[in-house]
Each structure stands twice: as C-alpha cells, then as structure tokens.
C-alpha cells in the first residue's frame, strides 16, 4: 500500500507546486510552461508504449515505470495500435502552447475521433497481429469490425470504411479547398461618395497612416471600413411577413359587433399593421361620444382575447378612433434597419438617432439636438436600457470621439460600463453617487467656460463656434451627452445636489452642445421633480405600473396599456400627443462587438509608433481585457494586467498612456477645469473646523454624520470628508463603513487645526 500511496502523494505535491508557480506567471509564460509539460508527457508516453510492445508482460521492465506500463496496457486494450495517437496529440498541444499561443486547437482535436474509429476498424479487419491476445485494433476495433460485418457484410464494410476515409480527408483539407473569408481587420477602406464637408476630412487619415521616419513598423497598420464592419456586427432585420388579411377582417368584425352590443355604432374604415400591433381605425356613427369608446378597452380586449388594448380617441388628424391590438405573433425590431435607412444615412446632424419603428414598421429617426433633453421612464424589463443603447450606438455610427463625448452614470453597474473601452467617454462610467455629483459639477463648469468662449468669439451656439474654428483651422468643441441610467438611485442619495446640477444644465446647456438623457424605473414626483420635468420637453414612456406613473411622465394616461419589451410612447417636444413606437432590440453581443471594434481602432492609433505587429498586440489587449489597466489603476488585477502588457510593449509606453489618460482630453477646457478644481481644493470649507471637532468628539466620521449635525447637503459633506482625509485626521475610504479617526490625543488634534486657523 505504501508503494502506491507515496508516488501518488509525490505526484500531487509536484502538481500543486507547478500550479502555484503558474499562478504567479504572466499568461504568455503560463502557456509556454504548459507547452513544456506536454512535450515531457509526449516523451514519457513514447518510451512507455515502445517498452510495452517489446515486453508486454513485464511491467517492471517498462522504461516508463508502473505508470508507463499500466497506461500503455489499458490504452492498447482499448484502441490497439492507435494508442500512438496519444503522444501525437501531446506533441501537437506542446507545439501550439509553446510556439503558437494565439492558435486555437479545439476543432483540430475533434478530427482524431472519427479517424480513430476508422483506423481501429481497419487494423482489426486487415492486421492480424496481436499483443497479449489483444488484436491490433483493440477491443473497440473488434467491436466496430464485428458490427459492420454482421450487418453490412464484407463488401459493405469495405465501402463504409472507404467513404469514411474520403469524408475525413475532405473535412481536414476543406480550408485549403474553399477560399477563406477575409477577417474584418483586413478589409480595405472603400469610401462612399460623400457630400458637403466630408471631402475636407479625407486627407487627414492619409497623413496619419504614413509612418514617421523614427517609427519602426514591420507591417502596415490595417485599414478598416468602420461603417461596413459596424453593420456586419448588427443583427439582420427579419423579413417582413405578409399580412393575414382574413384574420384582420375577422378581428375588425368582432370589434364592430362588440361595440354594437354597447350601443356604439360605427365601422372600421382602415387597418394599419406593423411588427407588434395592428391599429383599427373605427369611425363612430353620428351622436356617439368618443369617451364611451375609450371606456370599453377591457371589454374589447376580452372579445379579441388580447392581453392589453389601447384606445386612441381620436387619432390626431383623422375623424376616427384608433384601437390598437397586439399581433398574435410579434416580430423583432432590429437597429440595423433604421441605420441603413436613407433618412438616417442622409441625416446631416451628428446627433441623429434611431428610436425604433412606428406601428406600420417604418424606421423613426430624430435629432437629439432639437429635443434637446430626454426623459425616459418605465418598469424593470420594459426596454429603458435597450433604448439608451440604441441611442448610443446610433451616435457612435454617425460621429467619432472628436465630434461627440459621453458622460455615463450607471449606479446599477450593468449596462453603461460596457462602453468603457471606447474613447468617446470623458471618463469611465460613473457608478457611485458621490462621483456622479462631482462629474456633474465639473460639467457645469465646462458649460460656463464654453459660454465665455462663445462670447469672446461673438457666436450664439456650438454650431456657430465650430464653423468659425474650422475657418481658422483651430480645434472645435465636441457635443457632450450626459446619460443617467437610474435617476432614482441618485435622488435617494443626494437629491438636492443632483437636482440642482441637472436643472442648471438642462436650462442652459443646449446652446453649448450639452444634452441630457435621464432614465428611471420609478417615475414618482420625488424622483422626477417639477424642476426636472419642466426642463425635459422630450419624453419616452415604456410600460408603467399605473395610470399615476403614466401621468407623471407624460401628463396623460396610456403608458399603463403598453406591452413591454420596447413598446413605448414617444412625446416629441412641442407636441401634445404621444406617438407609439417599438424600440429596436440590441443584444449584449452586439454592444460588446461594436465597443471592441471602436476600441481596436483607437488602440491602433495610440500604439501606431510601436515596433512589431501592432494589430496582434491590439487584438490581445482587447480579448484579454488588458485595456482596463489604462482606464483604472485601482483595479484589483492592475498589477497582473500591467505585467501582461509589459510583455508586448515597452513599460514607458504603458506609463505614458496611464499618465496622459486613456480617454482624450477636452483640449483647453480640460486645462481650465483642472485649474478651477485645484483652486477650490486649496481653501478648506468654512465648516471644516466644525466638522473636524465633530468627528474628533465622536471618534468616527461619515458623510451622513456631517449632514445631520451640520445641516448641509451630501456633496458639501463629502468634500469636507475628503479634506479631513487630506489632513490625516481620518482613515482613507473603506467602502460603505464609517471611517475611524486617526487622532486620539487632544494636543495632537489642536496642532493639526492650527494649520487651518492661521
């Protein structure tokens, strides 16, 4: 027993040591270590199998030891001479891991299964050699051979094996027979004819593509047709299904008869059907009140066996009442159809967006600059986040990071952080209310700086400023879009500060090119306050829980009758009647694919002066998500990812990107903002002394404590906490826990306060 236990224990210890060593290595070194182990196992199996064939009955004479003898005996019993495939697989894996770290091998290994079946059958059929009374094809080959001969005869067996060989050969060499499709990163740019200002931008990429005299690049950087690659990632729209006219006629008859039962006479004059609903235009007879039809929604839903029916009384511009009935089969609405539409392609505005499709299936395009701010509300799962993603992707298709930038705030931490790799962001997605307040305050300062710049140039808005800068060949200002995915969470944390900053931006920021999109799943008056609501004329309501919620967001009923999953009521600015639309569906894979596409193009631009194959380096950075080391130095995996990056590029280049910032700066605005922030941080808050005495007395510090005792808001209390930390009075941030006070002696405390009282 000891002879068995001791080797097994030593083997387990050795494996544990290897795993511990591998854990501390970078990914490339891990793969090379795996390759060495596979080569070692290959040699061990070859020695063991040859020794077994020479001395099949002498286990102690096997050069591979007991392990080599038993492993060879069992594999030979199972598959016969095909057991030599094991060292072949091991040497292949060793080669892939050591020399070709980017190559995938899963598909190749699958070919060994059908090959093994055919080889074992052939060995059992034609090769009469045996070892230890085991045939050349092993037990498996004998079973296959016996089955084929009994059921198909010898001639049938020969035919099956022959065609099996042909099929396997065909599958192996199919990649050399059929032409390969070019990957997306090798597609050459094929510019479409563009209008107006587009030709002026063409010379710039040509100059950037030329490597400088000091740059050493072994291969030219790949040129990517961005819009073509963008559309390839998006899901194809399903073909429009033919209308079932008979079913619609039947439903129209049921509607008329059901209304007649309640003494509401009239006729259906028109039917419009789309991907989600069908609208029956009912023309009431003279003397019939419209309100009577509107109150029969539940009775009509019962008659048509529908989940929910919405009555539009009357249809704007028509002398008819609209009765909107869900279709029996709902079609998928995709973003690609809206993007390839001529209305969107020909839209000159950089803020053109696709909202979805109307009730007859036509794409709906709008301009965010005309709204100028949008309020979105709906229950969980109704389609708010998908709508936001649709708007973001529409803007990413139209505009680059020099034309539009985003400030994304997502307390839920689920949706918007997926866009962190793209350079369009001002900073990575904000997930904490405290940071959200700080970023909104910075944006207010940017707005004020832009107003001063516009006044100096004598222009009224951002379009006039940018036009003037283009004539001077100077830097233009990008549009800035603020997106808040869950307003309710921010309002619960710091309602006064959030409302103040959002209201100020909404009132004044349109002229300077700053626009806001706010979304919430709780459209109550304490979240969507009167000040916020008054400054957001454009609103989108998805399915809500009650009529009260519908009136909060739209000032009217109707959203409670929606179907969910993207079904919405869109209220454009300046109009009193909402339009029913169906939002486009965007999958997580599509968002991730487009984010990686844009990030890849940006990284190629950042790393163009590197030696070696920049394309491969960029692919590894994206696939392994190493770009997070550039974005967040506080990431728990920062050190590991930085080591992995250092294997592909100089450390100086990594530090340069981290120091300069992954996201492009806002030019002069960034410098001015930093100066303002530094000036504000120099002077302590007037309540700093009182706050310091308060936390020293309680020996604990928190934002809520300062809020309650000093009667101040969240943002100001947070700034005082930061100043207390800078003064070394309290410990650094420790999550949601209260902070401990580092000073216990009163003499030491008074000595620190003297610096701020002088």
Descriptive key words:
single chain, 758 residues, alpha/beta, Threonyl-tRNA Synthetase, Chain A, domain 2, Rossmann fold, 4 domains, 4-stranded antiparallel β-sheet, 17 strands, 52% helix
* CATH class membership of the largest domain: Alpha Beta
Strand content: 5-15%
Low-confidence stretches: 175-219
Number of domains: 4
CATH topology of the largest domain: Rossmann fold
The CATH architecture name of the largest domain reads: 3-Layer(aba) Sandwich
Tally of strands = 17
Which word captures the global form? globular
Strand order of the largest sheet: 10-11-12-9-13-14-15
Largest sheet: 7 strands, mixed
The termini sit apart by: 82 Å
Name the CATH superfamily classification of the largest domain.
P-loop containing nucleotide triphosphate hydrolases
Lay out the secondary structure.
Blueprint: H1 2-23, H2 27-54, H3 65-79, H4 85-99, H5 106-110, H6 112-126, E1 130-131, E2 134-135, H7 138-177, H8 203-209, H9 226-233, H10 245-261, E3 266-273, E4 277-284, H11 290-294, H12 297-304, E5 310-312, E6 321-326, H13 335-339, H14 342-345, E7 352-357, E8 363-367, E9 374-377, H15 384-398, E10 404-409, H16 433-457, H17 462-472, E11 479-484, H18 487-508, E12 514-520, H19 530-534, E13 538-541, H20 547-554, E14 567-571, E15 579-582, H21 588-606, H22 614-623, H23 628-631, H24 638-646, H25 651-660, H26 668-682, H27 688-698, E16 700-701, H28 703-710, H29 714-726, E17 739-740, H30 746-757
Parallel strand pairs: 9-12, 9-13, 10-11, 11-12
Antiparallel strand pairs: 1-2, 3-4, 4-6, 5-6, 7-8, 13-14, 14-15, 16-17
Helix pairs in contact: 2-3, 2-4, 3-7, 6-7, 9-21, 10-12, 16-18, 16-26, 21-22, 27-28, 28-29
